[in-house]
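Forwarding these from the shared drive since the link keeps breaking.
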Amino acid sequence: MGVSKRTRTILLVMVLLAVALALSGCGGSQQGADLTQPVTLSWQGLVDLVAKALILLNNIIASLGVYYSWGWAIVVFTIIIKLVTLPLTLRQLQSTKATQALQPKIKELQEKYGKDRQKLSEEQMKLYKEAGVNPMGGCLPLVIQMPILYALYQALYVLANPATIYPAWSVSKLQGAPFYWIPNLTLPSLSTASYSGVDFKGTAWIQGCISAQQWGLLLAYLSLPVIMLVTQLILQKMSTPPKGPKGGQDGQTQMMGQMMMFMPVMFGYITLGLPAGLTLYWTTSNILSIIQQYFVTGWGSLGDWVPMLRPKPAQEAVGVMALPSASSTVSEPEKTVKRRRRRK
């Protein structure tokens, strides 16, 4: 089906790989680490580097007298990552916008060469080349950010492990660090952990809070996954082009849209068993991405959910100008009468 389908397939595979990594809980996250040692060129070295960066940010924020310094350290870390990857993100958004603009022409090619798959692929590649669009350009930021996300995932477990040796310059430890209404950013955990008599291993805390009638604790740890889910759905909807004037979409576009809208729901479920600190990073990243998406591509198809965000049709823009005025409708008969009077 050409490059477009291949691009979507690659993105879907990358998402599924990220889901598999998050579910597996493999790697060094179960083990402590000696953060006093120099950083090495390895995966564990990247995890240690992220952990030390969080410790440094926590020290700076705590020295300013800001409460919940560990939570704000994660927020600032997210902003730094967004700034570093901003050029790639802008290129991704511009590539997405340009690809969306070519959709009518791509649809024409599909109707013309629908039976000849090879010819369709060649014509699509030719169209992308003439327009200066790289349909694979949107993959690079995702490829870069996925290792950072997973490194942060493991770094949080490293920092929460009692066996981890902190540097002498650290002012506090992540273990038990709260963030506003969230009692502990390191929970839920992969290993056995408890808080207020509730087991916080994986998603067992949900049933534990219900059995112990810890409704406040249940709402506290449900809030971030819910916010993450909502922001992810908004971002996904904004990245989808709005429907055409006729409001219709081809079957492939509808199928891909439904599949991509299912991904945020899957991510929301996964975050129920991940540390709240990682969900905080994910939520903050979504909010920043929504801002970036708006300034490059606008609200997209979010107007399907919020009618006031729909773009105004061209006919509404011209308004009364498109309608003939009353004076213009009677001007011709009046001119005819005047001419007859002059002749007489």
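-- next protein --
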Amino acid sequence: MTAIKEETSPTTKLSAREKAAVTDETARAIIAAEVNSREEKTERLRLLRLQREAAEIPAAPAKRKASSKKDH
């Protein structure tokens, strides 16, 4: 068990500035991954929508009744 503790414990303590830098870097990486994931999803959904719209058969416009004027 002491071997595990020795491997996981840092040999030197990080300063407050170093801890903040690590936290900042980690947060920025997480945010970038979320942005990338959202953009990929948006692109995928946009392509699916365009494919669905292209596959739809355009509905024929309703025919108008010819207005017949009777001469009386």
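The first helix runs from residue 2 to 8. Residues 1 and 7 are 10 Å apart (CA to CA).

- D.
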